[in-house]
């Protein structure tokens, strides 16, 4: 009864009529609009999943901030030991403290095998937060007692170690007490520069590894008692001890670099998700168009019965948006559930244990993207519904594909659509951690769409001009430009996905080529670090005695922390996102009199070789641009605990791709030459001689560490493979969306195709001729879509490799050929499926009088 | 039983074998309610050059017979010979070639390809036959049906009568020996229908095409040389 009253009430309201009609029509089912549902669900699921994954990891980071930091507050002295007074002051305030020193060294197994390790020397209080996992199970005190050594399991396996083995670390003999499978203050990261070895802090002096200028990190962590918070304590430390170049971190910024990496990765994946949604949007437009075509009679009947164009539009809009809402909802459910499954699968790969849950923020954002996309792409085809006349009932004519919306509402429609597109772009840019990148993405997406559209026009124009003799060829070409053709749609639906994959494949191929081919050719074989002044003569003699060692280069090595830039403290500098890394932590610093060989000066002059005046600095041009640093600007560095004011004298372009002795900062000689420092050297040697050379150097100079570039490159290659796989998987989503749209387009045109096949067969066409015509049509489409996708992939990969990675780029013709071929095969596959289905259709039922 | 043959008297050359020979033709199709016998043993000879009207109530099997003669429906049993060639054993592509070279068909619903212009629609069978002058002949054919000014129009831009005239032009353009027409005026008003049929009979006469015309229109049937009555899947009688 209530329902009846409600309906009567609603029917009296004019605005309710479209809802009532839409509801009645929706009772007929979703046929025809399923593709809209699937396209939106896929795109929304991708964005929601990436957002939820990112939120889970970010919350994991935030939740575990104190654990990752190793306490409520961590003070890093960089390369300089922290004063005992700092620990005393903290303990006097009731804090529990722990001191940690990290450095790299060589660990020599009983058999003489040696590997680079990342040594972590800890005191008895470590870990202040969380628990370490040691096997066999024992307390940390027992594990590191005496000359105790813990190594991570992979290091044990690599060197074939057993409990009780005696190894050499620097000058000290250490005894393997067990393996360390988890450290609470370590985020999972690839071991590019050595695997973990842990010893007691009290053992460190015996190793002789700490020498003047040794590259080491000194940290003091503290767990604070209840009372003033960590931020207050940090301020008090600065007030009490002054600006000593220390870096004081709180749990919120425990893993800034990692957070930035996660932000960037998720930004990329979100943009790929948006590309899927963009392709899905095209599917929405096409689905709505096909749905309207199938509903021409219903709409014409409504028009005959007195429905206005506006009412028809409103009814159709309500139905499409209701369906879009359902698609978005399905996408959200999948997007919320997928990360939960992914967390379980990726537990070992993710840097921190993520927080598992439903994150409303990313889900709401994904929903907004989905609804905006649906509205933006459905509006135009829906408006054409207003132009379907009542006369359509009486004339079974083909609805021309280019029916313009009614003239009166044209400007409103254009304005509405523009507003929706701007809202989508605005949302993309405003929610991106790197807005410039997002703006470039939007511009590239629009340009790509226009390019495919232009490609469609060109194909149609060219096909129209050609008149080959063979009928199947002519029929195939004619299919490309006839009224109602899906040529532009087919091109764009598959093309965008393939463009994404082509770009990913080309970037991947270029990076792989750099890492596996170019870098090994250009890079040195070894980096030797921590060579003392007093050891240089011996070091040179060892290398001189070995004919395999060539191309020795050496420079002084110091560590420096940026304190301020143009008088602005480092943490407040407004730097470009890809340059902030250099403002955090210690950076390498060297000094030079004469200009080093191969220097590419961008601005300014090099100082005289015997310069001994006010400290000058030669700086990396890219970082300078990112920080807004110009010639003559002041920059304050903390070197060995002392703040030194430098003036930027010149800017250099650094080719990091050489993997040579590149420094972002080179100081003028004079002041620094007198500071205690070590040397760093690079050497080239054939692969077969490298082990012998490493042994010779590190046996004679136990505190010197040799980094084998090949090992690092191998680790980088492995890491790149993992990243590439993730990117390719995400890129495949776009292709899947494209395939969905393609399938939808082929299905939408299938009725027409079947009818055409039957008529052609009736007129005497053989199946071979019909098949050949459609192969021509889809083959050309595949070739053109693949060609444009290859072009887009080329441009995008060039931009990323050259402009973002500052690396050398090559076009990789084999990859491009694979893209084009793949596209042709995919397109032919879809065409073949449609054609065969049409050829199987029986003629008689279609030809009988309707 | 002897085949019900249209009288040799109406054939131009009574000694010549009939263009179409149908013997013991049956057509059974499956349905949810069990097999349905549509044609129940048709025997029919159609002499070359004759115009035969095929009449009968709805569901009597007229269109099914036409479909079988055109090779668009496969007979369950019996034989059909067209121009001396048995067609029941032919494959789909061979049947297509046979239609291309020998048979023109006109439907009530026109069945033009909606995405092709009038000219392209008419040219298609000629192009399929590999005729180098396909477009020129198609144009001439359209001019002959009074549509020389509508060459580039799509079917959707033409009236029903015009669409049927395009279909006529398409059917006659390759000069087929047999024209099968299934209620070609069913979708047209009387005046337009009459005009279309005048055209059909005129072109048939000019080309000497054999015609099998399905119609409900008695006056139209009367214009044929003979009228075959079909009912319940069988030929009931033949009127001359």
Report on this model:
In chain A, 54% of the residues lie in helices and 16% in strands. The two termini of chain A are 44 Å apart. Chain B is α/β, with parallel strands linked by helices and 240 residues long. Helix content of chain B is 32%, strand content 26%. Chain B has helices at 62-69, 92-102, 118-128, 134-144, 160-172, 190-207, 218-222; strands spanning 4-5, 20-29, 36-46, 51-55, 77-82, 85-86, 103-106, 178-182, 210-214, 226-231, 234-239. In chain B, a hairpin with a 2-residue loop joins β5 (77-82) and β6. Chain B starts with a strand and ends with a strand. The A-B interface holds A 395, 397-400, 469, 471, 474, 478, 482-485, 752, 755-756, 759-769, 843-844, 847-850 and B 63-64, 67, 70, 72-73, 92-93, 96-101, 105, 107-109, 111-116, 120, 124-125, 127-130, 132, 154-157, 170, 182-183, 186.
What is the gist of this entry?
The complex is a heterodimer of chains A (850) and B (240). Chain A is of the alpha+beta class and 850 residues long.
Break the fold down into its secondary structure elements and pairings.
The complex is a heterodimer of chains A (850) and B (240).
Chain A: H1 2-12, H2 16-26, H3 34-63, H4 65-69, E1 73-78, H5 84-92, E2 96-108, E3 114-122, E4 133-135, H6 140-143, E5 148-151, H7 153-159, E6 166-169, E7 172-182, E8 195-200, H8 204-207, E9 216-223, H9 230-241, E10 247-249, H10 256-294, H11 296-304, H12 309-345, H13 360-383, H14 407-430, H15 435-465, H16 471-481, H17 487-522, E11 526-532, H18 536-545, E12 550-565, E13 568-569, E14 586-591, E15 600-604, E16 616-620, H19 621-627, E17 634-639, E18 642-653, E19 665-667, E20 678-684, H20 687-700, E21 705-708, H21 709-748, H22 750-762, H23 767-804, H24 813-840, H25 843-847
Parallel strand pairs in A: 3-8, 5-7, 14-19, 16-18
Antiparallel strand pairs in A: 1-9, 1-10, 2-3, 2-6, 2-9, 4-7, 5-8, 6-7, 11-20, 11-21, 12-13, 12-14, 12-17, 12-20, 15-18, 16-19, 17-18
Helix pairs in contact in A: 2-12, 3-10, 3-12, 3-13, 3-21, 10-13, 10-17, 10-21, 12-13, 13-14, 14-15, 15-16, 15-17, 15-23, 16-23, 17-21, 17-23, 17-24, 18-20, 22-24, 23-24
Chain B: E1 4-5, E2 20-29, E3 36-46, E4 51-55, H1 62-69, E5 77-82, E6 85-86, H2 92-102, E7 103-106, H3 118-128, H4 134-144, H5 160-172, E8 178-182, H6 190-207, E9 210-214, H7 218-222, E10 226-231, E11 234-239
Parallel strand pairs in B: 1-3, 4-9, 4-10, 7-8, 8-9
Antiparallel strand pairs in B: 2-3, 2-5, 5-6, 10-11
Helix pairs in contact in B: 3-4, 3-5, 4-5, 5-6
């Amino acid at each position: 009864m209530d329902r009846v009253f409600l309906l009567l009430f609603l029917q009296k309201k004019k605005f309710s009529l479209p809802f009532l009609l839409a509801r009645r029509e929706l009772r007929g089912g979703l046929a025809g609009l399923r593709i809209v549902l699937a396209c939106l669900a896929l795109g929304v699921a991708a964005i929601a999943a990436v957002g939820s994954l990112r939120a889970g990891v970010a919350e994991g980071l935030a939740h575990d901030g104190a654990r990752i930091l190793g306490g409520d507050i961590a003070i890093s002295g960089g390369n300089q030991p922290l004063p005992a007074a700092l620990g005393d002051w903290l303990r006097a305030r009731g804090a529990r403290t722990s001191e940690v020193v990290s450095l790299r060294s060589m660990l020599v197994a009983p058999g003489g095998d040696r590997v680079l390790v990342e040594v972590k020397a800890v005191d008895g209080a470590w870990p202040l937060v969380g628990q370490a996992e040691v096997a066999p199970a024992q307390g940390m005190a027992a594990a590191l007692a005496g000359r105790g050594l813990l190594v991570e399991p992979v290091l044990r396996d690599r060197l074939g170690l057993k409990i009780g083995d005696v190894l050499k670390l620097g000058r000290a003999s250490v005894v393997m007490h067990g393996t360390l499978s988890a450290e609470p203050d370590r985020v999972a990261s690839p071991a590019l520069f050595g695997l973990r070895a842990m010893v007691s802090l009290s053992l460190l002096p015996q190793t002789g590894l700490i020498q003047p200028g040794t590259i080491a990190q000194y940290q003091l962590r503290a767990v604070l008692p209840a009372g003033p918070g960590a931020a207050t304590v940090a301020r008090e430390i600065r007030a009490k001890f002054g600006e000593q170049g220390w870096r004081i971190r709180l749990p919120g910024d425990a893993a800034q670099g990692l957070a930035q990496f996660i932000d960037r990765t998720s930004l990329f994946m979100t943009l790929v998700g948006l590309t899927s949604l963009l392709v899905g949007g095209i599917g929405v437009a096409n689905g709505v168009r096909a749905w309207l075509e199938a509903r021409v009679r219903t709409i014409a009947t409504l028009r005959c019965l007195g429905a206005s164009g506006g009412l028809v539009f409103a009814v159709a809009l309500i139905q499409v948006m209701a369906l879009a809402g359902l698609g978005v909802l399905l996408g959200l459910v999948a997007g919320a559930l997928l990360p939960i499954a992914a967390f379980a699968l990726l537990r070992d790969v993710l840097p921190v244990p993520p927080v598992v849950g439903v994150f409303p923020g990313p889900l709401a954002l994904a929903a907004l993207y989905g609804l905006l996309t649906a509205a933006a792409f459905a509006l135009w085809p829906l408006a054409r519904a207003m132009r379907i006349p009542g006369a359509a009932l009486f004339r079974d004519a083909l609805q021309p594909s280019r029916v313009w919306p009614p003239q009166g509402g044209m400007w409103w429609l254009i304005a509405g659509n523009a507003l929706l597109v701007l809202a989508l772009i605005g949302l993309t840019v405003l929610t991106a951690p790197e807005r410039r990148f997002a703006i470039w993405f939007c511009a590239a997406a629009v340009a790509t769409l226009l390019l495919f559209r232009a490609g469609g026009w060109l194909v149609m124009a060219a096909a129209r001009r050609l008149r080959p003799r063979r009928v199947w060829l002519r029929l195939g070409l004619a299919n490309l430009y006839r009224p109602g053709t899906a040529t532009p749609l087919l091109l764009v639906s598959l093309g965008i996905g393939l463009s994404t994959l082509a770009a990913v494949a080309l970037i991947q191929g270029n990076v792989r080529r750099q890492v596996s081919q170019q870098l090994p050719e250009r890079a040195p074989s070894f980096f030797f670090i921590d060579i003392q002044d007093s050891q240089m003569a011996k070091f040179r003699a060892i290398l001189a005695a070995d004919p395999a060692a060539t191309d020795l280069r050496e420079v002084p090595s110091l560590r420096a922390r940026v304190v301020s830039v143009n008088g602005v403290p480092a943490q407040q500098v407004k730097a470009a996102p890809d340059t902030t890394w250099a403002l955090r932590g210690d950076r390498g610093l060297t000094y030079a009199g004469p200009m080093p060989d191969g220097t590419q000066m961008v601005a300014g002059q090099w100082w005289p070789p015997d310069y001994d005046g006010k400290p000058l600095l030669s700086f990396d041009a890219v970082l300078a641009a990112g920080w807004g640093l110009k010639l003559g600007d002041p920059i304050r560095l903390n070197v060995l605990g002392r703040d030194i004011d430098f003036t930027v004298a010149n800017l250099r372009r650094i080719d990091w791709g050489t993997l040579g002795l590149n420094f972002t900062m080179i100081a003028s000689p004079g002041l620094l030459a007198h500071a205690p420092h070590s040397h760093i050297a690079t050497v080239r040697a054939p692969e077969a001689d490298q082990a012998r050379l490493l042994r010779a150097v590190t046996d004679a100079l136990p505190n010197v560490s040799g980094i084998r570039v090949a090992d690092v490159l191998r680790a980088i290659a492995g890491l790149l493979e993992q990243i590439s796989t993730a990117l390719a998987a995400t890129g495949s989503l776009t292709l899947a969306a494209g395939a969905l749209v393609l399938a939808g387009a082929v299905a939408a045109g299938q009725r027409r195709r079947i009818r055409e096949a039957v008529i052609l067969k009736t007129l005497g066409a053989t199946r071979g001729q019909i098949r050949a015509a459609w192969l021509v049509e889809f083959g050309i489409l595949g070739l053109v879509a693949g060609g444009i996708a290859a072009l887009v992939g080329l441009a995008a990969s060039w931009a990323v490799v050259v402009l973002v990675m500052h690396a050398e780029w090559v076009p990789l013709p084999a990859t491009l050929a694979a893209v084009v071929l793949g596209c042709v095969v995919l397109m032919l596959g879809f065409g073949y499926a449609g054609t065969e289905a049409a050829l199987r259709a029986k003629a008689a039922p279609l030809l009988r009088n309707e | 039983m002897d085949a019900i043959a249209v009288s040799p008297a109406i054939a131009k050359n009574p000694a010549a074998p009939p263009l179409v020979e149908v013997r013991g033709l049956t057509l059974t199709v499956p349905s949810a309610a069990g097999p349905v016998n549509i044609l129940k043993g048709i025997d029919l000879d159609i002499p070359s050059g004759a115009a035969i009207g095929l009449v009968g109530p709805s569901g009597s099997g007229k269109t099914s017979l036409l479909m079988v003669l055109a090779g668009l429906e496969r007979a369950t049993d019996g034989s059909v010979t067209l121009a001396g060639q048995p067609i029941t054993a032919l494959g789909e592509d061979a049947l297509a070639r046979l239609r291309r070279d020998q048979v023109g068909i006109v439907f009530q619903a026109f069945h033009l390809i909606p995405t092709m212009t009038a000219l392209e629609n008419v040219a298609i069978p000629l192009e399929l036959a590999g005729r180098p002058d396909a477009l020129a002949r198609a144009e001439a054919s359209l001019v002959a049906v009074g549509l020389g000014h509508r060459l580039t129009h799509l079917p959707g831009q033409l009236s029903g009568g015009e669409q049927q005239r395009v279909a006529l032009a398409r059917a006659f353009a390759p000069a087929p020996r047999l024209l099968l027409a299934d209620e070609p005026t069913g979708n047209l008003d009387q005046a337009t229908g009459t005009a279309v049929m005048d055209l059909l009979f005129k072109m048939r006469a000019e080309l000497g095409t054999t015609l099998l015309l399905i119609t409900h229109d008695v006056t139209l049937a009367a214009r044929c040389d003979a009228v075959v009555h079909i009912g319940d899947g069988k030929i009931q009688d033949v009127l001359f």
